[in-house]
Task: structure prediction
Amino acid sequence: MRALALLLATGCAAHAAPLPPDHPASTAAPIGPITDLPATLRPGVAAYDPAPAEPARPAEPAPEHHHHH
Result:
């Protein structure tokens, strides 16, 4: 019975689409380092502000915490 259920389940499984030869996961893809950096790592694409000299302080002190018994 298990064999029949396994046969039916695997027979209905979707088949993966073939990868183009230049896809990094393809066995036909060239071996070597990745030549194109993600956009966030390319110079001039993302700008980062430097960290502030001192962290911001809250305007008011935090309220006291009381336990209710």
Observations:
- The helical segments are 2-11.
- The mean pLDDT is 75.
